[in-house]
Design brief:
Elements: E1 4-5, E2 11-17, E3 22-27, E4 32-35, H1 40-47, H2 52-60, E5 66-68
Antiparallel strand pairs: 1-2, 2-3, 3-4, 4-5
C-alpha cells in the first residue's frame, strides 16, 4: 500500500485502500499497523482533522480490528 507523509508528532505516514477499507499507519517511533473495516468517510474525517494524533487516539485506536505488519 502506498503511504504519504503526514504532519504529526506521532504519525509518520498514512495510506488508505478504499476497496478493502484498510487504513495503514507508520508511526514515528516504529511500527506499521493496518486497521480493517475502516470506512471511507472515516478516512476523510481523519485526514482532514486538525490533529491526526488526537483523532487517532479518540476515534481509531481500539475501535477497529488491527494488525502490526
Amino acid at each position: 500500500m502506498d503511504r504519504s507523509p503526514v504532519t504529526s508528532g506521532n504519525l509518520a505516514e498514512v495510506g488508505y485502500e478504499p476497496n478493502s477499507e484498510t487504513l495503514e499507519i507508520m508511526f514515528r517511533h516504529g511500527g506499521v499497523y493496518q486497521y480493517y473495516n475502516f470506512p471511507n468517510f472515516m478516512y476523510d474525517r481523519f485526514i482532514q482533522s486538525e490533529s491526526l494524533g488526537t483523532f487517532f487516539n479518540a476515534e481509531i485506536k481500539g475501535r477497529f480490528p488491527e494488525a502490526r505488519i
